[in-house]
Automatic annotation (TrEMBL):
The keyword Nucleotide-binding applies. The active site is at C78, H168, E170. Pathway: Purine metabolism; GMP biosynthesis; GMP from XMP (L-Gln route): step 1/1. GO terms for molecular function: ATP binding; GMP synthase activity. This is GMP synthase [glutamine-hydrolyzing]. SUPFAM superfamilies: Adenine nucleotide alpha hydrolases-like, Class I glutamine amidotransferase-like, GMP synthetase C-terminal dimerisation domain. It catalyses: XMP + L-glutamine + ATP + H2O = GMP + L-glutamate + AMP + diphosphate + 2 H(+). The gene is guaA. It comes from Sphingomonas oleivorans.
Amino acid sequence: CILIVDFGSQVTQLIARRVREAGVYSEIAPFNAADAAFDRLKPKGIILSGGPASVHTDDSPRAPQRFFEAGIPILGICYGQQTMCQQLGGSVIPGTTGEFGRAFIEVVGRSALFDGLWKEGERHQVWMSHGDKVDRLPEGFHPIAISEGAPYAVTSDEARRFFGVQFHPEVVHTPDGGKLIANFARHVCGLAGDWTMAEFRAAKIAEIREQVGDGKVICGLSGGVDSAVAAVLIHEAIGDQLTCVFVDHGLMRMGEADQVVSLFREHYGIPLVHVNAETLFLNGLKGVTDPEAKRKFIGKTFIDVFESEAKKIGGAEFLAQGTLYPDVIESVSFTGGPSVTIKSHHNVGGLPERMHMKLVEPLRELFKDEVRELGRELGLPDIFVGRHPFPGPGLAIRIPGEVTKERCDILRKADAIYLEEIRNAGLYDAIWQAFAVLLPVRTVGVMGDYRTYDSVCALRAVTSTDGMTADIFPFDASFLSRVATRIVNEVSGINRVTYDYTSKPPGTIEWE
Ligand code: XMP
């Protein structure tokens, strides 16, 4: 396998992802735990990540010196390249200008790293982000690619198989970056490239067994794909030492709660406590119209209910969560200042501290599309795995104004029609998220010979890769008018339908 030494870059997990895409297994270890990881893993290659530090600070992080004497290939990226050069006797100078963003490099030498990929004299686009730069190369090193801002954009010691890149091959803005990393892992390190999600599954199962021993684990299900995949994986590892708790707040979409219950109990035979807390949630939401007040009430009540169920089950030491890597990046921000709260997101964060439980988070290093792949590998039905994201507070934040059972029922019907039409048109997978919103506005209409005075429903559909930014989905007018007609005809309580044309930013995906 490959050992990735993490110096605190925000994109270290992307390196791991590129290595996985090359079909090679890797593990990330923080620089101060790299020694132990090396002994345990006996890697065939090492990648040193980038990071925010400068080698000029006294306590800046280093790679264990013995890694350079182990006789295995090493690839240093950005800060990783700088510390490698300095640790091997070269020098690094503080940059006066720095290079950030798109840059072009020119290949000036041959290298095993470029085999079958880049040739001398070619120019290639890369993504740079650095202040410091290498000034004098260690003995045995030569430049193999240069850029305007970095005469040592790529350097290597071909004999020792050490490579340094000043740019970031792991990000998508370096178009050949994934291939460079694959070249390092397979061609230079000689790894086979036959690692698959099936092996990830097996490795995680072993890890979960080791962590949990014969302890008891509880897992909160939300109806979404992340917690479902985590639960199924953990169940495969430890069987009935796992109990799942599904706090049903009554704010789910049409048929969704039943699907969760039958998937777990019937399809997988996983012990599941289904807590029907609809009345509790709806009573608490009476008269609440402020979006943040709704979110806070739902988040807090969810935790209360979950905690009391956990106590009833008793004796569980571990709490399982379907935390993904993007959730981790957002929580460990390097931006310095506190960021403004746009919305208080509801997830079970905060529970572990309060309940003094240890966390089991088997999906922590994966991205959403990888979780979906793992879900398929575990046999989760396609309609579950490919499902659009659904927010923790559920329909409550899709009903601006007061949330009542009646309004939830109206919205559920409209939303189901909209999604059914999207599926029938074969558009579901092209859309990141689509849903209906029930507005607290009534307008006048005419049906038959009667005047109507009913609610307005807004339809939303967006494309996105991570939910951070989004664009509207450009339906045909005929599609939208078909959905509008069906909703007004079939859902009593709605007499007008509009389509939301706002991208994010400036809008958010959800309305509240
Ligand atoms: P916004 O509305 O902020 O949403 O553009 C971005 C993505 O996050 C989802 N979302 C949530 N997910 N708990 C969640 O787990 C929440 O409280 C929550 N609020 C919004 C939203 O559906 C979109 O995918």
